[in-house]
């Protein structure tokens, strides 16, 4: 009975956060700190900082992984799953409803849809500049950014991002292998190494076997699961980086149009919760509400497996300077990938006339200078798109 009560409390608190956490991953971490550390006192400051550091180190949606980690610390694997569901489902439900509305009424050419595409321009521009300052502060990492940008623009294939990330990891390993930071004391996490090892093994088995199974069986559903799972597995540096990975997986296959893709990305900015719930919208456009839930499970599964698998090994891993160097290189490459995605498909398909650029500049200013909430920017973008269509 006590365990059920504990899980119910995790669900209530995480759902409240899922309904109110606007503003992206950094804001989410602030909401989590206020709720889990200061109010509920489920974790102390150091334990929370360690968990955030681990989530930043792993691929996947950092804020979601921190939320899962808090649930794991509080209620084991079921607690992690409960925390994930509470934080994620509110935005999943809203985005599936939006997708069904979009497909039912054929509003892809409406002015407000163009406005949402321009919102994506402003949001990604803001993300690029913010991440560049943090992840590429020195000339060596700026050079890695340039390499990733040129590579992903010239060779636009499904494997380019993976190759760029691997090369950047090698460069970072070689350049920063002697990089030192202040070490912290050991932290203990309540996950057995046996469970953790199984999760890590399953993560890699799915990553490498799903493409094989897709080719052998020719199954549409395996292909869809593989695309979303692989996108969720290879995202370093924040949820915005999932944009180019998903775009190259879905649009060339004809599963969604570029207009549907960018309209949904703009709408995702208006809802609370993690950006990865963009997958719910895409899945629903492709296969209705069931497809939305299917895509959501596929894209978040790597994050869940990795956070459960990495917790017991985190202390020894973060003390390895060579591993840190590889991650520094990967994070810099992520900035280059983002800039490439910002140019195509976002800029090239959204900014088609001077008025579009003017609206994008206004929306960017609202985000970067006036610090307005994302939902205000999204609503303004939709209204601006309608106004432009009438002129």
Automatic annotation (TrEMBL):
Keywords: Cell membrane, Membrane, Transmembrane, Transmembrane helix. InterPro entries: Chr_Tranpt_l_chain (IPR014047), Chromate_transpt (IPR003370). The chain crosses the membrane at residues 84-105, 111-132, 144-175, 195-213, 289-314, 326-348, 368-390. It holds the Pfam family Chromate_transp. One of its GO terms (cellular component) is plasma membrane. It is found in: Cell membrane. It comes from the Bacteria. Its main location: membrane. GO terms for molecular function: chromate transmembrane transporter activity. It is a multi-pass membrane protein. This is ChrA protein. It comes from Salinicoccus sediminis.
């Amino acid at each position: 009975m006590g365990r059920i009560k504990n899980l119910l409390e995790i669900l209530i608190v995480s759902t409240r956060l899922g309904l109110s956490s606007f503003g992206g991953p950094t804001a989410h971490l602030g909401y989590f700190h206020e709720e889990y550390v200061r109010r509920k006192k489920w974790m102390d400051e150091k334990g929370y900082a360690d968990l955030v550091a681990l989530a930043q180190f792993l691929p996947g949606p950092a804020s979601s992984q921190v939320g899962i980690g808090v649930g794991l610390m509080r209620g084991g694997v079921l607690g992690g799953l409960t925390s994930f569901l509470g934080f994620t489902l509110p935005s999943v439900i809203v985005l599936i409803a939006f997708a069904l509305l979009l497909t039912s009424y054929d509003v892809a050419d409406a002015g407000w849809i163009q406005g949402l595409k321009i919102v994506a321009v402003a949001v990604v521009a803001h993300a690029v500049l913010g991440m560049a300052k943090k992840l590429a502060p020195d000339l060596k990492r700026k050079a890695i950014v340039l390499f990733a940008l040129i590579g992903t623009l010239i060779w636009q294939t499904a494997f380019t991002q993976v190759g760029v990330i691997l090369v950047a990891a090698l460069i970072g390993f070689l350049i920063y292998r002697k990089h030192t930071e202040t070490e912290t004391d050991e932290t203990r996490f309540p996950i057995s190494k046996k469970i953790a090892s199984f999760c890590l093994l399953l993560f890699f088995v799915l990553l490498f076997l799903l493409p094989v199974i897709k080719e052998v069986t020719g199954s549409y559903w395996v292909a869809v699961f593989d695309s979303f799972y692989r996108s969720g597995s290879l995202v370093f540096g924040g949820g915005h980086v999932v944009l180019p990975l998903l775009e190259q997986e879905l649009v060339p296959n004809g599963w969604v149009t570029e207009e549907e893709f960018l309209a949904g990305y703009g709408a995702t900015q208006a809802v609370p919760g993690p950006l990865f719930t963009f997958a719910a919208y895409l899945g629903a456009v492709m296969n209705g509400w069931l497809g939305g839930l299917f895509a959501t499970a596929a894209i978040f599964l790597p994050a869940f497996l990795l956070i459960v698998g990495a917790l017991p090994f985190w202390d020894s891993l973060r003390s390895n300077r060579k591993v840190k160097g590889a991650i520094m290189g990967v994070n810099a490459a992520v900035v280059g990938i983002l800039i490439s995605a910002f140019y195509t498909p976002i800029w090239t398909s959204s900014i088609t006339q001077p008025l579009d650029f003017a609206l994008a500049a206004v929306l960017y200013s609202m985000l970067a200078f006036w610090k307005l909430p994302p939902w205000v920017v999204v609503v303004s973008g939709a209204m601006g798109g309608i106004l432009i269509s009438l002129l």
